[in-house]
Amino acid sequence: MTRPSIAFLGFGAALPERVRTHEDPLFDRIREAARAKGVTEASLFYGNREHRCLEPGESLATLTAKAGRAALEDAGLGPEQVDRLYGYLSVSEFITPNALYQVHRELGLGSRVLVVPVHAEFANFVMSAVLAWEAMLAGHSERALVAVGAGWTRHMDYSQGHAFGVGDGAGAAVLGPGERFVLVDYAVNTFSEEYGAMTLRPRPESSLDKPVYGLEPVLGVEAFLHTGMDGPPRLVEALLRKHGLTGDDITLISHQATRKLLDYWNERIRPREYLHTLEDLGNMVIASIPVTLARYHREVRTKYLVLLGLGIGAHQFALLVRV
After folding, report:
1. Distance CA 39, CA 55 (A)
2. Domain range holding 234?
3. Which residues neighbour 98 within 8 Å (Cβ) at sequence distance 6 or greater?
4. Position 18 pLDDT exceeds 90
5. pLDDT tens-digit profile of 262-296?
Protein backbone atom coordinates (compact mmCIF):
# COMPACT_ATOMS: atom_id res chain seq x y z
CA MET A 1 0.00 0.00 0.00
CA THR A 2 1.42 3.37 -1.03
CA ARG A 3 1.52 5.89 1.77
CA PRO A 4 0.01 9.29 0.92
CA SER A 5 2.29 12.31 0.54
CA ILE A 6 1.76 14.64 3.49
CA ALA A 7 2.88 18.20 2.92
CA PHE A 8 2.83 21.73 4.25
CA LEU A 9 -0.10 23.34 2.45
CA GLY A 10 0.16 26.89 3.76
CA PHE A 11 2.14 29.14 6.09
CA GLY A 12 1.34 32.16 8.23
CA ALA A 13 2.92 34.50 10.74
CA ALA A 14 1.95 37.36 13.03
CA LEU A 15 4.14 39.86 14.87
CA PRO A 16 3.56 42.46 17.57
CA GLU A 17 3.82 46.05 16.35
CA ARG A 18 6.20 47.26 19.05
CA VAL A 19 9.86 47.27 17.93
CA ARG A 20 12.76 47.20 20.39
CA THR A 21 16.25 47.87 19.03
CA HIS A 22 19.58 46.63 20.33
CA GLU A 23 20.33 50.20 21.50
CA ASP A 24 17.58 50.08 24.13
CA PRO A 25 18.95 51.05 27.58
CA LEU A 26 17.34 47.86 28.88
CA PHE A 27 20.41 46.04 27.54
CA ASP A 28 23.08 48.22 29.17
CA ARG A 29 23.86 45.60 31.84
CA ILE A 30 24.35 42.94 29.16
CA ARG A 31 26.72 45.16 27.19
CA GLU A 32 28.81 45.73 30.31
CA ALA A 33 29.08 41.98 30.87
CA ALA A 34 30.04 41.44 27.22
CA ARG A 35 33.08 43.66 27.70
CA ALA A 36 34.44 41.27 30.31
CA LYS A 37 37.40 39.10 29.36
CA GLY A 38 36.97 35.42 28.53
CA VAL A 39 33.87 33.53 27.41
CA THR A 40 30.84 34.93 29.20
CA GLU A 41 27.21 34.16 28.46
CA ALA A 42 26.82 37.71 27.18
CA SER A 43 29.52 37.14 24.56
CA LEU A 44 27.63 34.16 23.08
CA PHE A 45 24.46 35.98 22.01
CA TYR A 46 24.61 38.52 19.19
CA GLY A 47 23.58 39.14 15.59
CA ASN A 48 20.24 40.95 15.77
CA ARG A 49 19.60 44.68 15.53
CA GLU A 50 15.95 44.65 16.64
CA HIS A 51 13.01 42.45 17.58
CA ARG A 52 9.28 42.65 18.37
CA CYS A 53 7.70 42.79 21.83
CA LEU A 54 4.18 42.23 23.07
CA GLU A 55 2.69 45.30 24.74
CA PRO A 56 1.37 44.97 28.31
CA GLY A 57 -2.03 43.32 28.08
CA GLU A 58 -1.52 42.22 24.47
CA SER A 59 -2.70 38.63 24.01
CA LEU A 60 -0.26 35.99 22.79
CA ALA A 61 -3.23 33.74 21.96
CA THR A 62 -4.77 36.40 19.73
CA LEU A 63 -1.44 36.89 17.97
CA THR A 64 -1.10 33.12 17.43
CA ALA A 65 -4.67 32.84 16.14
CA LYS A 66 -3.83 35.59 13.62
CA ALA A 67 -0.90 33.48 12.38
CA GLY A 68 -3.21 30.46 12.16
CA ARG A 69 -5.75 32.37 10.07
CA ALA A 70 -2.98 33.50 7.74
CA ALA A 71 -1.82 29.90 7.28
CA LEU A 72 -5.34 28.71 6.53
CA GLU A 73 -5.79 31.51 4.00
CA ASP A 74 -2.46 30.68 2.36
CA ALA A 75 -3.60 27.05 2.08
CA GLY A 76 -6.98 28.09 0.66
CA LEU A 77 -8.81 26.35 3.51
CA GLY A 78 -11.37 27.30 6.10
CA PRO A 79 -11.24 26.41 9.82
CA GLU A 80 -13.91 23.75 9.27
CA GLN A 81 -11.48 21.83 7.03
CA VAL A 82 -8.93 20.94 9.73
CA ASP A 83 -9.48 18.24 12.33
CA ARG A 84 -6.50 18.77 14.63
CA LEU A 85 -4.66 21.70 16.18
CA TYR A 86 -1.09 21.06 17.29
CA GLY A 87 1.39 23.50 18.79
CA TYR A 88 2.12 25.48 21.91
CA LEU A 89 2.08 28.96 23.39
CA SER A 90 4.95 29.93 25.62
CA VAL A 91 4.71 31.39 28.12
CA SER A 92 1.03 30.51 28.49
CA GLU A 93 -1.45 32.47 30.60
CA PHE A 94 -1.81 29.48 32.94
CA ILE A 95 0.58 26.71 33.91
CA THR A 96 -2.16 24.48 32.54
CA PRO A 97 -4.19 24.41 30.36
CA ASN A 98 -2.08 25.81 27.57
CA ALA A 99 -3.45 28.85 25.72
CA LEU A 100 -3.54 26.75 22.54
CA TYR A 101 -7.13 26.10 23.62
CA GLN A 102 -7.80 29.85 23.40
CA VAL A 103 -6.34 29.79 19.88
CA HIS A 104 -8.84 27.02 19.06
CA ARG A 105 -11.62 29.27 20.37
CA GLU A 106 -10.50 32.41 18.52
CA LEU A 107 -10.13 30.54 15.24
CA GLY A 108 -13.65 29.13 15.55
CA LEU A 109 -12.49 25.54 15.24
CA GLY A 110 -15.17 22.94 15.85
CA SER A 111 -15.62 20.86 19.00
CA ARG A 112 -14.48 17.76 17.11
CA VAL A 113 -11.05 19.29 16.45
CA LEU A 114 -8.51 17.62 18.72
CA VAL A 115 -6.16 20.10 20.46
CA VAL A 116 -2.66 18.70 21.03
CA PRO A 117 -0.34 20.98 23.06
CA VAL A 118 3.26 19.93 22.41
CA HIS A 119 5.51 21.11 25.21
CA ALA A 120 9.00 20.75 23.74
CA GLU A 121 10.83 24.09 23.74
CA PHE A 122 12.32 25.04 21.37
CA ALA A 123 11.39 22.35 18.84
CA ASN A 124 7.61 22.63 19.32
CA PHE A 125 6.84 23.47 15.71
CA VAL A 126 8.96 20.73 14.13
CA MET A 127 7.79 18.10 16.60
CA SER A 128 4.15 19.14 16.14
CA ALA A 129 4.48 18.84 12.36
CA VAL A 130 5.89 15.32 12.69
CA LEU A 131 3.14 14.24 15.11
CA ALA A 132 0.50 15.61 12.71
CA TRP A 133 2.19 13.77 9.81
CA GLU A 134 2.21 10.48 11.73
CA ALA A 135 -1.49 10.85 12.62
CA MET A 136 -2.32 11.36 8.94
CA LEU A 137 -0.26 8.35 7.88
CA ALA A 138 -2.16 6.30 10.45
CA GLY A 139 -5.45 7.44 8.93
CA HIS A 140 -6.66 9.32 12.02
CA SER A 141 -6.42 12.85 10.62
CA GLU A 142 -6.93 14.48 7.23
CA ARG A 143 -5.62 18.03 7.73
CA ALA A 144 -4.04 19.71 10.72
CA LEU A 145 -3.07 23.20 11.75
CA VAL A 146 0.17 23.71 13.67
CA ALA A 147 0.42 27.03 15.54
CA VAL A 148 3.04 28.24 17.98
CA GLY A 149 3.41 31.55 19.78
CA ALA A 150 6.33 32.97 21.76
CA GLY A 151 6.01 35.70 24.37
CA TRP A 152 9.32 35.38 26.17
CA THR A 153 10.19 39.08 26.36
CA ARG A 154 7.97 39.10 29.46
CA HIS A 155 10.02 36.30 31.01
CA MET A 156 13.62 37.47 30.77
CA ASP A 157 16.23 38.51 33.28
CA TYR A 158 17.65 41.50 31.42
CA SER A 159 20.98 41.22 33.14
CA GLN A 160 21.64 37.94 31.31
CA GLY A 161 23.26 37.73 27.88
CA HIS A 162 20.69 35.50 26.21
CA ALA A 163 18.01 38.15 26.79
CA PHE A 164 19.66 40.50 24.28
CA GLY A 165 18.05 38.99 21.21
CA VAL A 166 14.81 37.40 22.45
CA GLY A 167 11.71 38.60 20.61
CA ASP A 168 8.01 37.75 20.42
CA GLY A 169 6.07 36.35 17.48
CA ALA A 170 3.79 33.60 16.23
CA GLY A 171 3.89 31.22 13.27
CA ALA A 172 1.66 28.54 11.82
CA ALA A 173 1.34 26.00 9.03
CA VAL A 174 -1.36 23.73 7.63
CA LEU A 175 -0.54 20.10 6.82
CA GLY A 176 -2.42 17.65 4.65
CA PRO A 177 -2.22 15.65 1.42
CA GLY A 178 -0.08 17.56 -1.08
CA GLU A 179 2.73 17.42 -3.61
CA ARG A 180 4.92 20.38 -2.59
CA PHE A 181 6.78 20.76 0.71
CA VAL A 182 6.31 17.04 1.31
CA LEU A 183 7.55 15.65 4.63
CA VAL A 184 10.12 12.93 3.91
CA ASP A 185 11.94 11.88 7.08
CA TYR A 186 13.21 13.11 10.43
CA ALA A 187 15.99 12.42 12.90
CA VAL A 188 16.18 13.14 16.60
CA ASN A 189 18.73 13.02 19.39
CA THR A 190 17.93 13.29 23.09
CA PHE A 191 20.51 14.36 25.67
CA SER A 192 18.70 13.87 28.96
CA GLU A 193 21.94 14.24 30.90
CA GLU A 194 21.50 17.98 30.20
CA TYR A 195 18.11 18.08 31.90
CA GLY A 196 18.13 21.24 33.99
CA ALA A 197 20.95 22.96 32.11
CA MET A 198 18.49 25.52 30.71
CA THR A 199 15.22 26.19 32.50
CA LEU A 200 12.22 28.48 32.73
CA ARG A 201 11.54 28.88 36.44
CA PRO A 202 11.19 31.48 39.20
CA ARG A 203 14.61 32.76 40.30
CA PRO A 204 14.33 34.02 43.87
CA GLU A 205 18.13 34.25 43.98
CA SER A 206 17.75 37.15 41.53
CA SER A 207 14.56 38.49 43.16
CA LEU A 208 12.49 37.21 40.23
CA ASP A 209 9.36 35.42 41.41
CA LYS A 210 7.76 34.81 38.00
CA PRO A 211 9.07 32.14 35.60
CA VAL A 212 12.20 33.48 33.89
CA TYR A 213 14.41 31.71 31.36
CA GLY A 214 18.05 31.10 32.18
CA LEU A 215 21.15 29.08 31.45
CA GLU A 216 22.13 27.43 34.69
CA PRO A 217 25.64 28.38 35.90
CA VAL A 218 28.42 26.35 34.26
CA LEU A 219 26.19 23.50 33.00
CA GLY A 220 24.09 25.73 30.76
CA VAL A 221 27.05 27.41 29.07
CA GLU A 222 28.81 24.05 28.66
CA ALA A 223 25.70 22.57 27.03
CA PHE A 224 25.54 25.54 24.65
CA LEU A 225 29.21 25.32 23.66
CA HIS A 226 29.37 21.56 23.15
CA THR A 227 26.12 19.69 22.48
CA GLY A 228 24.34 22.82 21.26
CA MET A 229 27.00 23.68 18.70
CA ASP A 230 28.22 20.28 17.51
CA GLY A 231 25.10 18.14 17.90
CA PRO A 232 22.89 19.72 15.20
CA PRO A 233 25.45 19.41 12.37
CA ARG A 234 25.99 15.73 13.20
CA LEU A 235 22.24 15.12 13.25
CA VAL A 236 21.60 16.88 9.94
CA GLU A 237 24.58 15.21 8.26
CA ALA A 238 23.32 11.76 9.31
CA LEU A 239 19.81 12.52 8.00
CA LEU A 240 21.16 13.77 4.67
CA ARG A 241 23.55 10.85 4.30
CA LYS A 242 20.64 8.42 4.81
CA HIS A 243 18.99 9.89 1.71
CA GLY A 244 22.12 10.32 -0.39
CA LEU A 245 22.09 14.10 0.01
CA THR A 246 24.64 16.75 0.94
CA GLY A 247 24.39 20.27 2.25
CA ASP A 248 24.42 21.57 -1.31
CA ASP A 249 21.03 19.91 -1.89
CA ILE A 250 19.21 21.77 0.87
CA THR A 251 17.92 25.03 2.19
CA LEU A 252 18.27 25.19 5.98
CA ILE A 253 15.93 26.91 8.45
CA SER A 254 16.92 26.44 12.08
CA HIS A 255 16.50 27.57 15.63
CA GLN A 256 17.85 31.13 15.81
CA ALA A 257 19.30 31.84 19.24
CA THR A 258 22.39 33.76 18.10
CA ARG A 259 24.56 34.48 15.09
CA LYS A 260 27.31 32.42 16.76
CA LEU A 261 25.28 29.24 16.29
CA LEU A 262 24.05 30.14 12.81
CA ASP A 263 27.57 30.83 11.54
CA TYR A 264 28.94 27.62 13.07
CA TRP A 265 26.13 25.44 11.71
CA ASN A 266 26.45 27.07 8.29
CA GLU A 267 30.16 26.25 8.22
CA ARG A 268 29.61 22.64 9.27
CA ILE A 269 26.46 21.77 7.29
CA ARG A 270 27.19 23.99 4.27
CA PRO A 271 23.62 24.33 2.99
CA ARG A 272 23.17 25.96 -0.39
CA GLU A 273 20.89 28.48 1.30
CA TYR A 274 20.37 29.36 4.97
CA LEU A 275 17.24 31.37 5.65
CA HIS A 276 16.63 33.17 8.93
CA THR A 277 14.95 36.20 10.50
CA LEU A 278 17.43 36.76 13.32
CA GLU A 279 18.63 40.21 12.31
CA ASP A 280 15.28 42.01 12.39
CA LEU A 281 13.10 39.69 14.50
CA GLY A 282 15.60 38.23 16.96
CA ASN A 283 15.30 34.87 18.68
CA MET A 284 11.58 34.05 18.72
CA VAL A 285 12.38 30.83 20.59
CA ILE A 286 9.60 28.43 19.51
CA ALA A 287 8.29 30.63 16.66
CA SER A 288 11.43 31.41 14.62
CA ILE A 289 11.13 28.46 12.22
CA PRO A 290 7.48 28.94 11.16
CA VAL A 291 7.84 32.73 10.95
CA THR A 292 10.87 32.28 8.69
CA LEU A 293 8.93 29.75 6.59
CA ALA A 294 6.04 32.17 6.21
CA ARG A 295 8.39 34.91 5.04
CA TYR A 296 10.55 32.91 2.64
CA HIS A 297 8.77 29.71 1.52
CA ARG A 298 8.11 31.06 -1.97
CA GLU A 299 11.83 31.77 -2.39
CA VAL A 300 13.15 28.27 -1.66
CA ARG A 301 15.11 27.20 -4.75
CA THR A 302 16.58 23.87 -3.66
CA LYS A 303 14.88 20.50 -4.02
CA TYR A 304 15.03 19.86 -0.28
CA LEU A 305 14.48 21.83 2.90
CA VAL A 306 15.69 20.96 6.40
CA LEU A 307 13.99 22.36 9.49
CA LEU A 308 16.30 22.13 12.52
CA GLY A 309 14.85 22.51 15.99
CA LEU A 310 16.42 21.99 19.36
CA GLY A 311 15.22 22.20 22.89
CA ILE A 312 16.04 22.36 26.55
CA GLY A 313 15.13 18.76 27.43
CA ALA A 314 17.70 18.53 25.90
CA HIS A 315 16.80 17.36 22.41
CA GLN A 316 17.52 18.11 18.76
CA PHE A 317 15.12 17.51 15.89
CA ALA A 318 15.75 17.67 12.12
CA LEU A 319 12.95 17.35 9.55
CA LEU A 320 13.65 16.70 5.86
CA VAL A 321 11.13 18.19 3.41
CA ARG A 322 11.01 17.71 -0.36
CA VAL A 323 10.19 21.00 -2.02
Report:
1. 33
2. 184-322
3. 88, 89, 92, 117, 119
4. yes
5. 999 999 999 999 999 999 999 999 999 999 999 99
